[in-house]
């Protein structure tokens, strides 16, 4: 597609072909499959509902290791008027990142592995009086269909990786993360002719999961209150951004 062509030419890698195996293929497969399995895990046990707003439910599991907060987050949301493909498109594509991200100083693509997989290097906004943080992660977008009738499920996974073009420069601290955005599209009262589907007939059921190790040291209470505030803020801002971007465009199934 034209979007892939943009990402590929952005770094001059014209050898990144669809379906081609590369050094991270096996890891990506393993991590993607892990998220799909984990997605159906129950949130009734050990998870606290820490925020609810409209259709959005934010769950957190309190986990600490050597005094460092590693709380997994799991967020469910339903967004009316957009498809899973549209949500994942705006989340994955580099060119929109700074239009909805408020927690970054910068973002860049440092490698294109294939048309669905790029490596990002990002510098995060300083939130604490502590050291600034950065991240380096592969970002993979994919769709799959479970049955003939269903709309495809779309997913984006962001997973920390090391890279020669992104050495760790202290005092900057590296965030380690495993994040997935999984989106299912529902068509309500489907018209007989699929061509007649309108935005009012569609909604996207989204699951966002984040395992984030902030690295370095961060006071637990401060980190937990930042997370509780920032994850819902991100999802609200990002979903209204996608609604605004897609409103007058043909539906991207
Ligand atoms: O998922 C989000 N953003 C993407 C795209 O920028 C990157 C993200 C990621 C983060 C870190 C490492 C790798 C990948 O997936 C939206 C993120 C919203 C963040 C809300 C703020 C959380 C505050 C606690 C984080 C503690 C880390 C210092």
Notes on the protein architecture:
The protein is an alpha+beta fold. The protein is built from five helices and twelve strands. The strands form two sheets. Strands 1, 2, 5, 6, 7, 8, 9, 10, 11 and 12 form a ten-stranded mixed β-sheet that branches. The chain has a two-stranded antiparallel ribbon with strand order 3-4. A hairpin with a 2-residue loop joins β3 (64-65) and β4 (68-69). The longest helix is centred in the C-terminal third of the chain and has 27 residues, at 220-246. Residues 1-12 have low confidence and may be disordered. The structure holds ligand 14H. Ligand 14H binds next to β8, β11 and α5.
Topology:
Layout: H1 2-11, H2 25-38, E1 48-53, E2 56-60, E3 64-65, E4 68-69, E5 73-80, H3 84-92, H4 97-100, E6 104-114, E7 117-124, E8 133-144, E9 153-160, E10 173-174, E11 176-187, E12 202-213, H5 220-246
Parallel strand pairs: 8-10
Antiparallel strand pairs: 1-2, 2-5, 3-4, 5-12, 6-7, 7-8, 8-9, 9-11, 11-12
Helix pairs in contact: 3-5
